[in-house]
User: What shape does this take?
Amino acid sequence: MFQIDDQAQCEQGVLDALQTGYRLIDTAACYGNEAAVGRAIAKSGVDRHDIFISSKVWIQDSGYERTMASFQKTLDNLQTDYLDLYLIHMPYGDYYGSWRAMQDLYKAGKIRAIGVCNFLPDRLVDLIESFDIVPAINQIELHPFSQRHELRELMAKYRITPMAWAPFAEGQHNLFSDPTLTDIGAQYGKTAAQVTLRWLQQSDIVAIPKSVHLARIRQNFAIDDFALTQSDMDRIATLDTGKPLILDVATCKEAYRLHNISFVQ
Assistant: This one.
């Protein structure tokens, strides 16, 4: 539930999603809406064990002890005693300490799976080689205009599942009216957004589309009644720009250095 600061709107959006049939809810400590997500889950009437809840530890809470404290606050906010997935939000700060804490929480049964966000090949391989547990997930910017082939190939080698944040590229490059995506969608009576989500699904990529509008929530859910052909997939492959459009992790690294946040080297 990224960029949804309005607590009531967030709560209603999650409730609408759960009533539509969604069972994966992704949030994060820094989104400031974990409590709203927790309230929606409690109101939904859906059994907790049928919902997959993912959250993240933010940079300022990196390190072993701070991650432990942040994790407990997340549990309290979400009104649950375990998480299905817990992620390091950014590859900055003492993420080694965070990973040690997350490994311990995983071994204690408090987390069903642990992973990372926005880790590029160098940081990802370093983490894998330094610890016992390989991340189950790497949540990254991934959409038709930034398909991240090199990173996905590395992740496949280690059996790390890609999870796509901003699957609609936050509307950049006019994704919702892109000629290729809309033309493909016209064959099936689907929108460019639905084609995008179906492309991700057929590429074995977990998508976490964001919306607080009931009609769009339902539309995003309705992608299991058609399938893209190989020709469709090949056409979408031509849209790749070969670079991220929203988050350049290397640039962010320099910005965080300026704010005196330490980095693991």
